[in-house]
Automatic annotation (TrEMBL):
Transmembrane segments: 21-41
EC class name: transferase
UniProt keyword terms in alphabetical order: Coiled coil, Glycoprotein, Glycosyltransferase, Golgi apparatus, Membrane, Signal-anchor, Transferase, Transmembrane, Transmembrane helix
Name this protein carries in UniProt: alpha-1,6-mannosyl-glycoprotein 6-beta-N-acetylglucosaminyltransferase
Major subcellular site: Golgi
Family to which the UniProt record says this protein belongs: Belongs to the glycosyltransferase 18 family.
Endpoints of the signal sequence: none
GO cellular component entries: Golgi membrane
Gene name tied to this protein: MGAT5B
Involved pathway(s): Protein modification; protein glycosylation
Localization, UniProt: Golgi apparatus membrane
Example GO BP: protein N-linked glycosylation
Organism whose genome encodes this protein: Anser brachyrhynchus (Pink-footed goose)
Length: 796
């Protein structure tokens, strides 16, 4: 008896030592089985139709055979486990297996070996029974689903002329539905019916299936009244929205804090100006694409090394303006955040969004625009009218229209988006085809202005540019030597201690300065001088606002994408005649001097004249906080690119009996141009107001931008639709032997030497930019508010 008990003890101990990893395995199998059963049963019983539950989608995608196969494999694994347990239990005591471990396993801690084996057998039998029951449930539920849906596996592609692309899309789905997991997310499982359900209910290429549960089209309740936007009086919440983790974000937050009081005072002034006017609160997503890791985020590492900060200056000001105007903001600087806020389904971006877009407006850049297109599927085309693209140098219509750009050689890496040209928002108002967004410069109060005038050093010059590369091109030594004869030259070039920058010895380099220290340097200096690069940055306006004279080089010939590497590939043909065209054209002398740096006599004469000239700090209204708030407010209230209807197609033939409607235009009293007719009806919702319209005919080689500017006006592309009529040529006494509708960004125009007139066929190609020696263009011009070129006199 004692011997038997000893053998039993040894066998049990062996069994337990051997079974320890198997016990863990058994527990794992049991847990997995429980999760699988909950998932499968939950999906089968809770889902009402395909796509209502993620559990249903999983079951449908796996299919009944796959589900039963999983259960069968689980059962086989447990059976194999039992066989191995039986072998171990019948082992004889032929070895001294783990003798040294006997003291570590007291017998009284365990049940006899037979009892343990019975429990394992019971677990295996229960799992096997459950597998059989689940198999029956899956079979019955799938059968009932087929019976309930009727002809789920017998769907035929409908032939409906209203849906001409349906058959082709189904064919594509047959071959490619597994190319993106998003199709399975929406319930596609490889059957014809699932293709048609997806193409009719998620996308819109096929008609709704009659056997699907289609709820009666009940009249939708009126939408609840929208919350009204109220000017905010604190920027603390905005600083939280901007977030942390990047040097660029830290820079933007510092700028917002620095200008906070000016922003708040400007918001109060604009609120008083609007006199309590009702404004709907917009839900706005701000996605700064160039700061995402996926786009490279080249700016953040260069913030502390003198890299360009103009884009971050502008984004900080956009955020402050939108927030203070009282709108609801969401800020993202990563692709993951963008996908989450848009409602992008899992996958590779071929499917539409899971829900309607929750934002009224999206402000982004070209990088963000590309990311949205890649991940929104068909929803991008549906919602792109809500996008506003922050575009430093602008995108002209000829580059924006994909078909036209491809045919005429205007296609670049940045264009061809087929957006309304006004959806692109620029840093400076260099092309009226785009909307002028801008930024702000710090304003001075009376005390600060007087202090600056008294502390100016008349012989001090600061060089524009913080990177050492701007000093390297040859030819600068000559005009620097001339400047050094009259002024002490200061630089703010970034450098590392062990590698000082390559600047002339007579230049006093302060290194990279914080913004407030750079402002103090400008307040002392008499001259702020540019070396030709960077183009169109914010620093010259800051210098002029701090009482400096800005001296820049004239480019001859002008720089453009045709002759300069920097502009090559940018979606514009604009010719840049100087480093900062806005300062040259809209500010000018005495604050801005543009000279030929290759002409030593002209350059030296300009330096002498500047030293004799006294200037006060000057800042155009459109670059103040109030000016930017006013401009963005007007855009949000009036710009709507989602409901604009296209004009009717041009008539092919015209009966002599047909009478043209009376023209909305009339000849001006001096008979030089056309104006809005006093008898014509005015749409009170039209923006800009049509009363501001003037129609002028350009000279050859002159764009409408230049034609309007020469008359103290600005080109307004919104008004092109009123000019695009044959009758307008007659009113302007232009003889037309023929009139044709064509796609050309220069039309409407006339080729006078052959008396051929041309009208615009594609509204997206209406363009203020562009000229040709063959054509004289019809140009829509309007007035503008002093210091606010983006808005007409009655536009606010």
């Amino acid at each position: 008896m004692l011997t038997v008990n000893a053998d039993g003890k040894i066998m049990v101990r062996r069994c337990l030592v051997t079974l320890r990893p198997f016990r863990i395995f058994v527990l794992g199998i049991g847990f997995f089985t429980l999760c699988f059963l909950m998932t499968s049963l939950g999906g089968q019983f809770s889902a009402k139709r395909l796509g209502d539950s993620p559990f249903t989608i999983r079951t449908e995608v796996m299919g009944a055979l796959e589900s039963r196969g999983v259960l069968r494999r689980m059962s086989d694994m447990l059976e194999l486990l039992m066989k191995r347990m039986d072998i171990l239990a019948r082992l004889e005591n032929s070895t001294d297996f783990h003798k040294g471990d006997e003291a570590r396993f007291p017998l009284d801690r365990f049940q006899p070996g037979a009892s343990l084996m019975e429990r394992i057998q019971a677990i295996a039998q229960n799992v096997s029974d459950i597998a059989i029951k689940v198999d029956q449930i899956l079979r019955n539920s799938l059968m009932s689903a087929k019976m309930g849906d009727g002809r789920r596996d017998q769907c035929e592609v409908p032939r409906d002329p209203k849906y001409p692309d349906c058959a082709g899309k189904v064919e594509w789905m047959r071959a490619r539905w597994t190319s993106d997991p998003c199709y399975a997310f929406f319930g596609v499982d490889g059957t014809e019916c699932s293709f048609l359900i997806y193409l009719s209910e998620v996308e819109w290429f096929c008609p709704p299936l009659p056997w699907r549960n289609q709820t009666a089209a009940a009249p939708s309740p009126p939408p609840p009244p929208r919350a009204q936007a109220a000017f905010r009086s604190d920027l603390a919440r905005l600083l939280e929205l901007v977030g942390t983790g990047k040097e660029s974000l830290s820079f933007m937050k510092k700028r917002i804090r620095h200008l906070a009081q000016q922003w708040l005072r400007a918001a109060r002034r604009l609120e008083q100006k609007l006199k309590g006017r009702q404004r709907d609160q917009k839900h706005i997503l701000v996605h700064i694409g160039f700061l995402t890791e996926e786009s490279g985020d080249v700016f953040s590492p260069r913030v502390l090394k003198g890299g360009p900060l103009g884009e971050m200056v502008q984004w900080a000001d956009i955020l402050a303006a939108l927030f203070l105007l009282g709108h609801s903001l969401r800020v993202t600087v990563s692709l993951k955040e963008l996908q989450s806020n848009l409602g992008v389904p899992p996958g590779r971006g071929n499917c539409p969004l899971t829900n309607p877009l929750p934002f009224d407006l999206i402000y982004t850049d070209y990088h963000g625009l590309q990311q949205m297109k890649q991940h929104m599927g068909l929803s991008f085309k549906k919602y792109r009218c809500r996008v506003r693209v922050i575009d430093t140098f602008g995108t002209e219509p000829a580059y924006n229209h994909e078909e036209y750009a491809t045919l005429r050689g205007f296609r670049t890496n940045w264009g061809y988006w087929n957006l309304h040209p006004s959806q692109f928002m620029t840093m400076f108002p260099h092309t009226p085809d785009n909307s002028f967004m801008g930024f702000v410069s710090e304003e001075l109060n009376k005390t600060e202005r007087q202090l600056i005038k008294s502390n100016k050093v008349g012989s001090m010059a600061v060089v524009y540019g913080k990177e050492a590369s701007i000093w390297k091109p040859q030819g600068k030594e000559r005009f620097l030597a001339i400047l050094n004869k009259y002024m002490e030259i200061h630089g703010t070039v970034y450098y590392e201690t062990q590698r000082p920058p390559e600047v002339p010895a007579f230049v006093k380099n302060h290194g990279l300065l914080p913004q407030h220290e750079f402002q103090q340097l400008l307040r002392k200096a008499k001259l702020f001088i540019g070396f030709g690069f960077p183009y169109e940055g914010p620093a010259p306006l800051e210098a002029i606002a701090n009482g400096c004279v800005f001296l820049q080089a004239r480019f001859n010939p002008p720089h453009s994408s045709l002759n300069h590497e920097f502009f090559r590939g940018k979606p514009t043909s604009r010719e840049v005649s100087s480093q900062h065209p806005y300062a040259e054209d809209f500010i000018g002398k005495p604050h801005v001097w543009t000279v030929d740096y290759n002409n030593s006599e002209e350059f030296e004469a300009a330096i002498k004249a500047i030293m004799r000239t006294q200037v006060d700090p000057y800042l155009p209204y459109e670059y103040t906080c109030e000016g930017m708030l006013e401009r963005i407010h007007a855009y949000i209230q009036h710009q709507d690119f989602c409901t604009t209807t296209s004009p009717p197609p041009p008539p092919r033939t015209k009966s002599p009996a047909m009478q043209s409607p009376p023209s909305v235009l009339a000849l001006s009293p001096n008979a030089t141009h056309l104006v809005w007719s006093p008898s014509a009806r005015r749409d009170p919702r039209a923006w800009p107001p049509v009363d501001s319209l003037q129609v002028w005919v350009s000279e050859t080689r002159h764009a409408c931008t230049e034609t309007c500017r020469r008359r103290g006006l600005v080109c307004e592309p919104t008004f092109f639709r009123f000019l695009n009529k044959k009758e307008v040529f007659l009113q302007l006494s232009i003889a037309c032997d023929s009139t044709e509708y064509e796609m050309n960004h220069l039309y409407p125009a006339v080729a006078e030497n052959v008396h051929e007139c041309y009208l615009q066929k594609e509204p997206l190609l209406f363009s203020c930019a562009g000229h040709n020696s063959k054509y004289r263009r019809l140009c829509p011009c309007r007035d503008y508010r002093e210091g606010q070129v983006a808005l007409c006199r009655d536009c606010v």
